[in-house]
Every structure is written in C-alpha cells, then in structure tokens.
Predict the 3D structure of the following.
Amino acid sequence: MNQLSYDLRVIWACARKEIQSALTERFATALGIFLPVNFLILFSLFALSGGLAPTAVVMADSGPLAQQFYQAMAHAHSFRLQTAGAQQAQALLQSGQIVAVVTIPAEFDTSLAAGQPVQVGVQINNLNTDFTNDIRRAVPLSISAFYAQAFPRAVTVTADEHDLLAQDTDYIPYLTVSILVIALMVGGLIQSGTAAAGEWEKATIKELLLSPASRWAITVGKMLGAFLMGLLSTGVVLLVLVLVVGVWPLHWVAVISFTLLTLLIFTAYGTLLGTLLKQRQAFVALALATSLPLFFLSGAFGPISFFSIPLLELIAKIFPVYYAIVLQQYAFHGFNLNTLSVSVNALVLAGYALAVIVLAVIVLRRTTVAN
Amino acid sequence: MTVQTSLPRRPARAAAPASGPAIELIELTKIFGRFTAVDRLSLTVQQGEIFGLLGPNGSGKTTTINMLSGLSVPTSGHVKVLGYDVRRQTRQVRQLLGAVPQETALYEELTAWTNMDFHAELFGIPAAEKKARITAMLELAQLLDRKDSRVQTFSGGMKRRLALARALLHDPKLIYLDEPTLGVDVQARRVIWDYILGLREQGKTVLITTNYLEEAEALCERLAIIDHGRLIAVDTPGHLKQTYGGRVVELETQQPLAVVDGLRALAGVLDIKQDGAHLTVNTTGAEHVVSAVVNLVSQTAELRDIAIHEPALEEIFLRLTGKALRD
C-alpha cells in the first residue's frame, strides 16, 4: 500500500467514523438537519409578516370608477386587500386584524364624472410605523395610478419605467435564496464544529493524534464526514425551497455547484473553529452568534451596494457569505448582484474553501495535548 | 499472542532495533508558563521491561508520556523511542507505540468492533488481516461476545481491556499505559494486571504510570519515582526498599516495655511506635541495628514474638517525597 492509498483509506475511515458517530446521536442529527430548515421557515415568516399590509376596503360606491380605484390599490404591491362593510371593517381594525380601512365614498363615480373633489377615507392603526408608512405611501400612489388609467389626459407627468431585468423577482423568492446560504452556513458549521470540538471534550483526539496517519488526511476525512452529513440538511432545504416555496432555479448545475462549494467552506470553518475552541457549547454559541450578523450583513435582503454605510459593504466583502449569496441569486434568478463576473465570484469562493481547508489542516498539525 | 502488522510502505514500517534502550529521556523539561511540569528528567527504559512511573497527581507523569508519544513538545531535552527521535521521527515512533491513555480515548457511542476497525484503518492494517486480528484481540480481551455493543454500555474494566486490545492491534513494540486501572474494581484490576504481565512474555516493553503502589509493585520490574517533575529515585522495587526503606522490627513482649527511650537512643533507629506490649521499630536497615534492638528488649522483658520485614513502598514514597502518594 503506497502513501496515497493509505491517506485515502484514512480519509474514508475518518469520514465514515464521523457519520457513524453522528447517526448514533439522533437528536443532534435531527437538529442538524432541521435547524437550517427552521431558518428558512423563520425568515420566510419574517418576510411574509412584513410584506403586505392587511387592509379592508369599504366600497360605498360600486360604480366602474370605484371598481377601477379598487384595482389600482390591488396592483400597488403594498396591500393585502379585502372588501368589507363599514361596521365589519371597523371591527377588524379595532381587533388588530387589519392595518387600515380605506373607504370609497358613495357617489364616488358621480362626483368624479362631475369634476368634483372626492375624499377617500383612510383610517390607520399606527402602532407600527413600518406598516403605517406603507399605507401612507401606497394610498396616494394608488390614487395616481387610478388617475393615470381612468383619466389619462388629466395626468401629464408619468413615470417611464425601464427594467434592468426581464422579470421582477418577488421578495420571498429573493430572500429564500439567501436563506439557503445561511442554512448551508449553519448546517456546515454545526455539523463539523461540534464533531471537531467533541473529539477534545471526549478526549478521543488522542486516538487520532497518536496514530501515524497524516494530520491532513485526518482533517480532510473529518471534513468529508461532516460534509456528507451536511448534504442531508442541504437536500431538505433545497426541497423545501423548490417544492414548498416554489422557487425554481434558472441554472440547476450552478445551484448544485455553488451549494456544494458553500457547504465545503463552512464545513472547513467548523472543523477549524471546533479544533481551536475544543468545546462544543462554546463552539455552538460562537457559530450562531457570528452566523446571524453575517447573514444580515451579506446582502440577504438586498444588494450590499444599497447600504448607506460604506464600511458595512467593505466588511461584508471580507466574508464568503456575501459571495455565496451573489452566486446563489445568480443561479436561481439569473442576475448578478455585484460588478464581478460569476466566474470571479466563484473563484473567490473556491479560494476561501482552499484557504480554510489548509488553515484547518495547519491547526491540527500544530495541535498538541497539554495533558 | 503475537500478531504481525504490515503498515504502509511509505512511510516505511519503522523497524525496532534488536537491542538498545526502548526509551531514553535526556534532560527532558516541560514548562507551561511559570509552571515547570517536568524538570530535567533523564531516564532509560530497556527493551522488554515493564517500567513504572510513580508519582502523585500532578507530578508530571502524564506530561512525560505525552512528550514521549509526541503529543506534547518538550521545552528542552530529548526523547528517543527505540532509537527514533520523537520530534523528528514522530511517525516511526507512533508505528511502534501502542497507547492506552488515561481517558481510554474510546468512541463510546460506537461499538467495540467499530472502535477496533477504525484503529486498524488509522494504522493501515491490511484489509485481508484486519478481521482476523480484531477478532483475536477482542478474544484476548474477553470482549468478543460484546463486539457489537456500544462502548458506553461497558464497565470501567471492560473499557480498559478494550483500550488495551486496541493499543495492541497494530503489534506495537512499546506500550504505554497511563493509569491503567484507574477507577476499575479490584477484580477487573487483577484481570488487567494479568493481561499486562502477559505482554512481557511477548517481548513487549511496557511503560506504566500509576499512583497505586500495589500495582507498581505487582507489575513493574523497575520504578521511577517522580515528584514535581523531578526524578527522585529509580530502581527495582526491592532495591528501593533496601536503599531507602531499611527494616521494620515488630516485637511482642510479655508485658509493656519501659526501655523505649534506650531503644530510641540506639544508632540506626528511626522511629518507634508502642502499643501496649507491641513495639514497632523502624530502622535504617544497617545490619547491627536489628540485633541491637532485639538484645536490648530481651534484656528487660520476655520476648513472645519477633518479626522483621521490609517497609511498604508507600513508606518509601513518603520518605522520599515527604507526602503520601495520593495526596
């Protein structure tokens, strides 16, 4: 048996041992798989709850112009509309089930036809300025849109919109693709980091370090095991994304490639941090404490170039999460969020992967046991 | 039982020299910050020996064997194992070394077989031999019937036996056992001792660290007593007793003695304990002392019984280090 065969044997043995160990801890394995899915659900709920303002429309006039006004509101991308009677609408507002009541007054059509002013009543539950401001912006916009359609000659200033992309991307599909990256980050980190730190906590590290096997083969083997376990959670997240959320990728091969590359980076990061920290509890706390800020920082909700603080943009570019989000948005939706080409973004990510793997190997090579 | 191991060609299977020391520690020192764990320790262990490192907790035993196996880097000094420099030829040393750490380092969530199989893979035992060797080792450790049980279901003694079987799987020339019977009941301890004694018959060199004197006495051909990382004494248990222990004279008289002060004044008498008609006299061991004690006592009282014996190793340890072993 030559050195390469021996090293490959060690790699596979370490990977297999990682998987066997992980599978014996069923609760931890289930947690490792569903924690990333949990993030998907959590952020989707967050996006859903903050997306459209639930609003009741009281149609005191049901003429064609009133109907047209209702349609203008429906297309404003700000309301989740329902029609209601005046009393019912009040009850909904008072009970906190809706944010606003918009009342289209009686004789709406007649007054407009006569060129008389009309007041559309707007009652707002202003307990949350996020929703309140949505309503304050969207009602005048709906009025403008209605006028542009109903009385085109009366509106002399209109927007001449030219879209950069062929189609709009809804907020949820945009956000869930970013969430795939955090799922890979958390899944990869937790799986590999707890395994690496566990070797120290249980003192089994001595079995590894006292063997003649190369430290690099041991490290790579441990990473491979965690990577393969991480694929389980990745598969589940991807299935939820495609089948439940309904986001269908434009480039499947790119999705799979970038997913594997991202998982590899965070598996290596986990191994590195777990080896350094040597304690599972400390590792999990650190992993979660860094994952969430990195996620928010790295353009999960929109391009980082939209940040008003340039320093934040600079910090985001230091970490691989940013490049992973850029690449996944491309793979799913076809657009590029930065000025680098897709290949350069992918190369940057691959560079991170290589660097972290090498660093993890160096750390284990230099590791000694105090007692 | 001897098992041949075939390790990968590259790195070459380290060959153990036919003669020469198994372990050489030369001025070995390990300093952690301001704490000196091992202080210029020099020792030689011959091949085929069962050698004991004896010392209280924190005396530097485990630090010493960590440096011996390359798990820890010495601050200064050198370690050679079967002629190989541990720092420069670590892989060769590890091929020749079988280790049973204090914590056993077993994957408790996995089965006994899986633990052995993993070890076989790490040490490159050929696939064709692997199954037979694992079976043989588990049989030797009397654990074959529990091969598919998770280690976490094993008793302390079973875990120690499994760790020992695993350490022997790749047929090492030198085996170190760090506190091999720590936390093990008396019956299981006996089984482990027999197992260790069996290794000597296979020509293996065994290094044991222990703070059980009974264990050191039962197993070790030579002992090194260390304290605060320093070598206090090294010799066979018998010589240690002769050199540092002297003799203990136990006397039983018809009635309690009144000549105790006279005995205490005798040259070579270290300590006297009187319990009614029973007298225990610790002496330096010089030849004339015992007869002088007996003569003086017999002049003043009728002797009913005399017993002369060597002191326990515990007393030697106490004398050399000024403290009990498990302080």
User: Anything to note?
Assistant: Chain B has two domains: 21-241, 247-309. Chain B touches chain A at residues 7-11, 32, 62-63, 66, 69, 71-73, 91-92, 94-95, 97, 99, 101, 103-110, 114, 118-119, 121-124, 126, 150 (CB under 8 Å). The first strand of chain B starts at residue 21 and ends at 32.
